[in-house]
Amino acid sequence: MAEKKPELAQPSSRNWVRVTLTSANIKSLETVSTDLIKRAKDQNLRVKGPVRMPTKVFWNLNSSLC
Q1: pLDDT score for 38
Q2: Are 40 and 47 in contact (CB under 8 A)?
Q3: If DSSP codes are grouped into helix, strand and coil, which group holds residue 41?
Q4: Residue 41 and residue 45: Cα distance in Å, rounded?
Q5: Nearest-5° Cα angle at 48, 46 to 51
Q6: What is the DSSP letter of 26?
Q7: Which residues contact 56 (CB under 8 A, 6 or more apart)?
Q8: For residue 24, what pLDDT is reported?
Q9: Are the C-beta atoms of 24 and 62 separated by less than 8 Å?
């Protein structure tokens, strides 16, 4: 028999929350984000993410061709 997925909570008003976390310590960011996702899913809320931001800095140098 196939398992049913739990029903997502249907709030009376639709609320969107976006959380941006910044830190030099990646390990602590991962633990915090997994904890946030776990707590949201325990309350049957819909979760998208985490979306990782690029860390490389692009240096655009306008050099002359001469």
Answers
A1: 95
A2: yes
A3: helix
A4: 5
A5: 160
A6: H
A7: none
A8: 86
A9: no
Residue 40 tokens, joined: 């949201």
What is the block-wise mean pLDDT of the chain (66 residues), using blocks of 10 residues?
Answer: 68 79 90 94 90 81 73
Torsion of CA 26, 31, 37, 41, to 10 degrees: 160
- Report the pLDDT value the prediction gives residue 42, as an integer from 0 to 100: 95
pLDDT in tens, 13-26: 778 889 899 888 88
Count Cβ atoms within 10 A of the Cβ of residue 37 and give its class: 0-12 exposed, 13-18 middle, 19 or more buried.
middle
- Looking from the CA of 23 toward its CB, the CA atoms found within 13 Å total 10
Judged by DSSP in three states, 3 sits in coil
